[in-house]
């Protein structure tokens, strides 16, 4: 999304990464390392996949609140598969899906699940150690 923002902000594509880095630093205050990380990430995951992932996150978060609404939204999205990219993105917006709108909430859910998994793992290790202590004595 950042690369799209840069292109939209400046209204052009760039011939070289050096030109992009210069403009990103001057106009958007993005340092060279951040931009390198972004460009590397985009080489691995093209923008179309990142946007799809963001839409999937939004659907997941909606599903947590209202399963039927999320499934209806998914059906509408699937019905748009033959549209051009521009039509597709316009219609995604019309459906009320805003990529990354729920990202922080999603990350918080992941952190909570990770924390719970780590706590369970530690509890299991403690139980095993406690059991071994009694077994060995």
Descriptive notes:
The protein is mainly alpha-helical. The protein has three domains: 1-44; 47-101, no CATH class; 109-137. The chain contains seven helices and no strands. Helix 4 (47-65) packs antiparallel against helix 5 (67-79). The longest helix is centred in the C-terminal third of the chain and has 34 residues, at 103-136.
**Secondary structure category:** mainly alpha
Instruction: Name the quaternary structure.
Output: single chain
Strand tally: 0
Cα radius of gyration in angstroms:
22 Å
Strand content: under 5%
Q: Order of helices and strands, N to C?
A: HHHHHHH
The number of helical segments is 7
Overall 3D shape? flat
Helices and strands in order:
Blueprint: H1 2-10, H2 17-28, H3 32-44, H4 47-65, H5 67-79, H6 85-94, H7 103-136
Give the gist of this structure.
Helices cover 80% and strands 0% of the residues.
Sum up the structure in keywords.
137 residues; mainly alpha; 7 helices; flat
